[in-house]
């Protein structure tokens, strides 16, 4: 059974149609990559999956997005609970201006977790999952903004994991990082696959090849094709996909 099912979704920003009849399935415990030129709808879809678009004035959506068997745009849905189940990591590291510890504890505290001992366990677990514990365990109460860019991004991943989500959305999480930090994040994402469903927007096609199980190619708000990653890159069905991955445009 698919973890997320997107069915005939259109997203409008005012009169502009950013997504056009998008249907796509995301399998559980898999890494799905979304590729395509800038402005083609990849990030718009990502924001639709945790209803971040709700915060954009003039944006509205048609169609259906199901998480397991729940319509995430249904009238009974609590958006805060949805965003606990579906975490987001953004393009640029965005730690809060507080300590490393408080960054990771922020979500659990917001959702009602109390008690220092319990928080200590959650914070350590999330930092270990983000492959950051050994680097920060002696500076948990120092400012998070003192970490390197790559460490800050792994901290943001730990912050997303601390509320125990089921799905992790990542919007070009390595685009602001150097190759070494990028490699660490890729290793981390690959390792997290066993516990989470991961959907990653990337402009780096080599990254999609390295880490993803499935790739979808977007163009002008449409999904041109979706296939297992090795198949899409070696035997694309659509000429537009072939042109993009061979560098003829985009």
SSE inventory with pairings:
Elements: E1 4-13, E2 16-26, E3 31-35, H1 42-49, E4 59-67, E5 70-71, H2 79-85, E6 86-89, H3 100-110, H4 116-129, H5 133-136, H6 149-161, E7 167-171, H7 179-192, E8 197-201, H8 205-211, E9 214-219, E10 222-228, H9 229-234, H10 239-245
Parallel strand pairs: 3-8, 3-9, 6-7, 7-8
Antiparallel strand pairs: 1-2, 1-4, 4-5, 9-10
- Overall average residue pLDDT: 95
Distance between the amino and carboxyl termini:
34 Å
Tell me the CATH topology: Rossmann fold
- The coarse overall form would be globular
Largest sheet: 6 strands, mixed
The count of helical stretches stands at 10
Give the radius of gyration. Answer: 18 Å
So, CATH architecture?
3-Layer(aba) Sandwich
N-to-C series of helices and strands:
EEEHEEHEHHHHEHEHEEHH
The percentage helix is: 25-40%
CATH-defined superfamily: P-loop containing nucleotide triphosphate hydrolases
Beta strand count: 10
């Amino acid at each position: 059974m698919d973890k997320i099912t997107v069915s005939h979704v259109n997203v409008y920003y005012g009169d502009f149609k950013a997504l056009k009849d998008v249907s796509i399935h995301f399998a559980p415990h898999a890494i799905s990559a979304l590729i395509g030129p800038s402005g083609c709808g990849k990030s718009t879809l990502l924001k639709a999956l945790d209803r971040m678009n709700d915060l954009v004035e003039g944006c509205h959506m048609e169609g259906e997005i199901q998480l397991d068997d729940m319509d995430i745009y249904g009238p009974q849905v609590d958006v805060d609970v949805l965003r606990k189940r579906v975490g987001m990591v953004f393009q640029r590291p965005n730690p809060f201006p507080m300590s490393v510890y408080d960054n990771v504890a922020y979500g659990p505290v917001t959702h009602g977790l109390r008690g220092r001992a319990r928080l200590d366990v959650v914070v350590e677990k999330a930092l270990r999952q983000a492959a950051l514990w050994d680097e920060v365990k002696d500076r948990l109460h120092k400012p998070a903004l003192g970490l390197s860019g790559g460490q800050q991004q792994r901290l943001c991943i730990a912050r997303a994991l601390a509320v125990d989500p089921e799905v992790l959305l990542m919007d070009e999480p390595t685009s602001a990082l150097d190759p070494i930090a990028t490699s660490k994040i890729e290793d981390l994402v690959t390792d997290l696959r066993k516990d989470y469903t991961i959907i990653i927007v990337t402009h780096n096609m080599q990254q999609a090849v390295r880490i993803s199980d499935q790739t979808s190619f977007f163009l002008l708000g449409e999904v041109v094709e979706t296939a297992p990653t090795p198949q899409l890159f070696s035997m694309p069905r659509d000429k537009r996909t072939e042109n993009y991955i061979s560098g003829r445009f985009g």
